Inverse folding.
């Protein structure tokens, strides 16, 4: 049974208030009559037998790849790379889809007599995962089989002894990868494709690369020229990764790509009100919403954060594709869009959105102001395909989030300096890139913390800011409702206490009675403006 | 010479003395009873001209001849005869029973202590000359500040004046100031700081700037020169933690009695230098001459935030003790005024 598709509601006088995420909490907002609310499609029904689907995919690969089993032979070296803790969001309940897929791969490796197997968390420049996070993603059996012997590793983009430079693309882009992955006789990459940005050649070319390599596509220029980075066909980020991916392939790195999509149930049933449309809330949804909202607002922000960070998504496997990278990814994109695409008629003057407590880079941590900006102006703003954002050029984005001036010094040490030293001087992505990026990227202390602790790489806050570059370039203004005013000001954005105030501010930019579109996420959706 | 004080500043050392927090080190070099006030612009009793007081009571003021070696070299702040000669003990005017102090309507001073105030210099600028001379002397106490990475801890009168002095006379490659209050940070920037931060934020700023690694309470590297204008155990401890090995910590603020682990000083071979008062600088110029120039060029008269008549001394002292919190910098007495209203600039 196919899931109910996405829907665009036009607000009228009878429309109940719309729920906005607001960090760990919620706001109920009455949007002006005539506003449009874009609702994502419903979650699809779980597959009856996910393991059978995975086995079928491995045995019936796409593209010119042979079945996985026939690529395995005794004495060969096998590297299995997998997406890190930034996916999926929120973390899914166990068993994680990575565990299911890797168990199937390992079964085949064992059957073929492959002993030389190494697992690699494809961190790129993300923080290292903790043992509980690895156990959650892989399951205890895999963890206990590989970790004690050192065969469960985490990619280290700053380890000169375990990087290999494969060459430069036609455009002079360095391709430098994890040596264990690139020199294995077979590299299996296990993806969790939550959004269309994920996967394809980006998996290896970014996930297993060094700063020297990643800097070629994680920069202001590619971001400003991506319409959007969620749309491979209009994304400079992906074009660069594809050039690199083909160089990797031509260098003799043999990749067996596995991509998975999830069914969209991003919260457990107890949070069912999150993915039901407000006018369809039943008594239980209302009670659940009120109880959740009341409980979260009654406790300290720290406790509310802990409670929400412990929430596990009810995701189940929706599809799995395996084989040659490009063929696999094409099918994945098709599957994702089938689950997430919502067509919207025309751009709006104002785009509103509620931002939740979690994004890719604050799993088990807190969402600092830079990550707030990245989630709203990066990920949510860019949640479109087809070349046209939901909001018109010169329009306004209004985001709802408490945006506390707060940082996790263990995971985001360079973010603190970026916020206090760089953004205090300029918020212009190109200017701060030119003036500060290299010094942060090569700072020995950040490198030390990235390699030995659980810190994001020193350059990472720059990337988060570049993620906003397209929006900052496109918009006339961006406003945060209910945020810490000082923090919002430091971001270079405008601050409003209420949605009404924000709309009043927006009218200075787009005029009175603007057209308004509200992005009702999560669950995730991908918009296509027609 | 009899003087009629026009304005007399309230210094951190005055507050420490009044609140009995000053070190007992001073006991042999003060004499009781004394009238406080060593930051003084006054009118001469003989010709009515305005003068600034160079407060140190060195050999000349004590009629000691020949003078001690420091005084002979013009380094009056290091005078060895502060308890001798024909005056009672007293390191400065304002701490000596016989000469009085600026917090009064009349005091006496030796001719050698007086500097004529130019006609076009206001009283508020003039009263800043003495504290600025102290700051300037501190700034020039470490030649390696020129071209180095320099941090100033504290942004009260002394810290801000020192920032101005460094910016004018030392030109560090980077000048970082830790300021507790927003108005202090703004003034520090205006006076030449490249970066301002909180005391808590200072290690982070210096770590980034010097590309150091970090360990609890210290950086692997750090600033070339730290000027401690606070003089508390916390500030000195921080100074030793963020000063690079082989660097210099200049203690400019009057320190409180403290217990301090000097292991970092030893292990990192840090030079700890005291900088007290003024005299003749290493460039051969008198501190006061340079201070007059600096007060004028950096417009340091603006640091005077409020003026109080003597009769409102309790309010004045309370204001001075909370100057930072109240958005102020320098609080002064205005002995010639008896108005109950007083005057406030800020």
């Amino acid at each position: 049974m196919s899931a109910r598709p996405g829907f665009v509601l036009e607000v009228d006088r009878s429309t109940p208030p719309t729920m906005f995420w607001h960090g760990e909490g919620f706001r109920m907002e009455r949007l002006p009559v005539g506003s449009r609310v874009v609702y994502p499609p419903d979650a699809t029904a779980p597959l009856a037998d996910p393991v059978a689907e995975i086995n079928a995919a491995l045995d019936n690969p796409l593209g010119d790849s042979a079945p996985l089993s026939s690529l395995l032979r005794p004495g060969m070296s096998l590297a299995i790379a997998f997406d890190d803790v930034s996916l999926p969001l929120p973390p899914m309940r166990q068993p994680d889809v990575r565990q299911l897929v890797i168990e199937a791969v390992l079964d085949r490796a064992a059957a073929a007599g492959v002993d030389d197997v190494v697992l690699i968390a494809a961190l790129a420049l993300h923080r290292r995962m903790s043992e509980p996070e690895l156990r959650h993603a892989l399951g205890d059996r895999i963890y206990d089989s590989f970790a004690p012997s050192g065969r469960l590793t985490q990619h280290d983009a700053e380890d000169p002894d375990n990087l290999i430079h494969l060459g430069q693309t036609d455009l002079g882009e360095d391709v430098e990868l994890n040596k264990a992955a690139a020199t294995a006789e077979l590299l299996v990459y296990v993806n969790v494709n939550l959004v269309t940005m994920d996967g394809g050649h980006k998996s290896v070319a970014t996930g297993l690369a060094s700063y020297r390599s990643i800097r070629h596509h994680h920069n202001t220029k590619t971001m400003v020229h991506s319409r959007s980075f969620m749309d491979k066909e209009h994304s400079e980020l992906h074009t660069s990764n594809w050039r690199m991916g083909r160089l990797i392939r031509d260098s003799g790195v043999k990749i067996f790509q596995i991509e998975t999509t999830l069914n969209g149930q991003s919260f457990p049933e107890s949070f069912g009100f999150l993915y039901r449309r407000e006018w369809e809330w039943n008594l239980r949804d209302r009670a659940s919403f009120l109880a959740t909202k009341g409980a979260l607002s009654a406790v300290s922000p720290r406790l509310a954060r802990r409670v929400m960070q412990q929430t596990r998504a009810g995701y189940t496997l929706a599809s799995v594709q395996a084989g040659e990278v490009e063929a696999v990814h094409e099918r994945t994109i098709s599957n994702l869009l089938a689950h997430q695409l919502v067509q919207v008629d025309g751009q709006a003057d104002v785009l509103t959105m509620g931002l939740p407590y979690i994004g890719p880079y604050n799993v088990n941590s807190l969402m600092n102001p830079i990550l707030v900006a990245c989630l709203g102006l990066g990920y949510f703003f860019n949640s479109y395909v087809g070349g046209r954002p939901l909001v018109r050029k010169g329009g306004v984005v209004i985001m709802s989030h408490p945006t506390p001036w707060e940082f996790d010094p263990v995971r985001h040490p360079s973010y603190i300096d970026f916020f206090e030293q760089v953004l205090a001087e300029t918020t212009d992505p190109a200017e701060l890139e030119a003036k500060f990026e290299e010094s942060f990227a090569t700072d020995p202390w950040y490198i030390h913390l990235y390699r030995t602790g659980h810190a994001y790489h020193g350059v990472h806050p720059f990337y988060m800011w570049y993620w906003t570059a397209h929006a900052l370039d496109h918009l006339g203004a961006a406003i945060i409702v209910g945020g810490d005013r000082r923090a919002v000001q430091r971001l270079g954005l405008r601050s409003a206490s209420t949605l009404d105030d924000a709309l009043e501010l927006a009218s200075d930019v787009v005029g009175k009675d603007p057209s308004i579109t509200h992005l009702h996420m999560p669950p995730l959706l991908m918009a296509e403006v027609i | 010479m009899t003087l009629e004080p026009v304005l007399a500043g309230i210094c951190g050392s005055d507050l420490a003395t009044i609140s009995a927090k000053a070190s007992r080190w001073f006991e042999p070099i003060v004499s009781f009873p004394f009238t406080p006030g060593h930051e003084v612009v006054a009118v001469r009793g003989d010709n009515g001209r305005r003068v600034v007081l160079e407060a140190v009571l060195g050999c000349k003021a004590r009629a000691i001849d020949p003078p001690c070696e420091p005084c002979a070299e013009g380094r009056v702040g290091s005078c060895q005869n502060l308890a001798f000669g024909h005056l009672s003990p007293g390191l400065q005017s304002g701490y000596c029973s016989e000469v009085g102090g600026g917090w009064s309507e009349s005091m006496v001073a030796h001719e050698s202590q007086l500097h004529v105030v130019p006609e076009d210099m206001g009283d508020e600028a003039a009263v800043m000359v003495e504290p600025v001379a102290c700051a300037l002397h501190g700034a020039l106490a470490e030649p390696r500040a020129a071209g180095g990475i320099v941090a100033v801890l504290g942004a009260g009168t002394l810290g801000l004046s020192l920032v101005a002095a460094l910016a004018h006379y030392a030109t560090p490659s980077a000048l970082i100031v830790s300021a507790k209050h927003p108005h202090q940070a703004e003034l520090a920037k205006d006076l030449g700081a490249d970066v301002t931060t909180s005391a808590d934020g200072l290690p982070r700023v210096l770590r980034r700037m010097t590309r150091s690694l970090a360990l609890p309470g210290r950086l692997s590297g750090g600033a070339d020169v730290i000027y401690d204008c606070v003089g508390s155990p916390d500030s000195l401890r921080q100074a030793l933690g963020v000063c690079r090995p082989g660097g210099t910590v200049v203690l400019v603020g009057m320190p409180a009695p403290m217990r301090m682990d000097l292991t970092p000083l030893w292990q990192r071979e840090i030079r700890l230098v005291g900088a007290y008062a003024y005299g003749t600088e290493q460039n051969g110029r008198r501190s006061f001459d340079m201070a007059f120039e600096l007060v004028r060029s950096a417009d340091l008269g603006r640091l005077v935030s409020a003026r109080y008549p003597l009769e409102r001394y309790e309010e004045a002292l309370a204001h001075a003790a909370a100057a930072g919190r109240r958005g102020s910098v320098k609080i002064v007495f205005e002995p010639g005024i008896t108005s109950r209203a007083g005057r406030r600039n800020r």
Observations:
- Residues 339-346 of chain B have pLDDT under 50 and may be disordered.
- The longest strand of chain B covers residues 243-251.
- The longest helix of chain B spans residues 157-169.
